[in-house]
Structure formats: C-alpha cells, structure tokens
C-alpha cells in the first residue's frame, strides 16, 4: 500500500512539474502589437501596473517574473519565440520601457543580461 501511495505522489509531482502556461493567447498577433504603439503601450503599462490590463495582459503579468527566473520553462514553443521577439523589440526600440520593466522585474539584473546580449542589434 505504501509503495502504491508513493508512486501516486511521484506521478502527481511529475504532472504538476510539467505544467505549462495556458496557450489561450498563443495566437495573438505580436507583429501587429509591436508595430503599433497605440496597441503596445497599454500592454507595457499593464505589466508596469500603470494602467488597466486586458485579459491576456493579466495572464502575461501573472507569469512574467517566474518565466524570467526559470528561462520560460513552462512556456509553450510559441510563447518562447514570442518572448524573444517582444524582448528584442523592447531592447532595440523601446529602451525607456525596457529600463522600467527591468527595474521592476529584475532589479538585480540576474536574468535580463542574457536577453540583452542575445537580442541587442548592433547600431550602425
């Protein structure tokens, strides 16, 4: 009986550990948002807690710190590529907002340095 209980607990722990973030918003058109500041700025303000949040903004905000800390371990493949696209855009085109987001979610710069190194474009 104890062996059965242990196997059940291990299976439950494995299932919980493999949990991914919801893919409900994976079809959001990031290119449209990134190319239109009227769409982009409200998302940033939501994440900075300086404005109202849409449902997908709330979802993003609820996971952003954990995703940074664990290298997007629970992200779907779409979320991982989207994260790189958005962070790259912020680093290269929205430096002020990138600075605010970094100060809020990674003030010690433990995690963002990797992204900055990988995604910063060389200014010609």
UniProtKB/TrEMBL annotation:
PANTHER family: CHEMOSENSORY PROTEIN-RELATED, EJACULATORY BULB-SPECIFIC PROTEIN 3-RELATED. Keywords: Signal. The lineage of its organism: Eukaryota, Metazoa, Ecdysozoa, Arthropoda, Hexapoda. Residues 1-18 form the signal peptide. The keyword Ribonucleoprotein does not apply. InterPro entries: A10/PebIII (IPR005055), OS_D_A10/PebIII_sf (IPR036682). This is Ejaculatory bulb-specific protein 3. Pfam families: OS-D. The keyword Transferase does not apply.
